[in-house]
Amino acid sequence: MQAGVPPRSTPKRILIVEDNELNLKLLNDILEIHGYVTIVAATGAAAINLARQHHPDLILLDIQLPDISGTEVAQHLKADAETRETPIVAVTAFAMPGERTKILESGCDDYMSKPISVREFLELVERYMGGATADPL
Ligand code: MN
User: Fold this and answer.
1) What distance in angstroms lies between residue 21's CA and the mean position of ligand 1's atoms?
2) pLDDT tens-digit map of 47-76
3) How much is the average pLDDT of 26-53?
4) Fewer Cβ in 10 A, N or C end of the chain?
């Protein structure tokens, strides 16, 4: 390494919790293209384990999961000192006004409706991450 050249920053890591394979692939591909490292989980239980293990910079959380609901996952994560600082963005098809309140009360920091707009999705992610860390070339 040359003097004066700062070390390359560690890529930001995002845990994607999504049981639908196509949605998972979409979110994963968008994030990888923009320089993020992804970790994926298809169940609430896996999400909790991976969040504790990897301390991601952000969690994208589907609400309808096959085991426990995303709101239960958020409650677990926000009650656990290991994971409570990690921002959680719910990504859900639920559109009822009351659902949004319920999701935010469960501990999610933000909320995005499916189908996602790629641009709005990236803007939301970057708001929590302070920008992607891919080489700016
Ligand atoms: Mn789902």
Assistant:
1) 9
2) 999 999 999 999 999 999 999 999 999 999
3) 97
4) C
- Chain-centre distance of CA 20, in angstroms? 15
- DSSP string covering 42-92: SSHHHHHHHHHHH--SEEEE-S--SSS-HHHHHHHHHHSTTTTTS-EEEEE
pLDDT of the residue at 33: 96
**Using CA of residue 101, residue 105, residue 108, residue 109, what is the dihedral sign?**
positive
How many angstroms separate the alpha carbon of residue 24 from the centre of ligand 1?
Answer: 10
Beta-bridge mates of residue 41: 17
CB of 110 closer than 8 Å to CB of 89: yes
CA 46 to ligand 1 center in whole angstroms: 14
Between the CA of 92 and the centroid of ligand 1 the distance, in Å, is 8
The region of weakest confidence among 27-31, 47-51, 89-93 is: 89-93
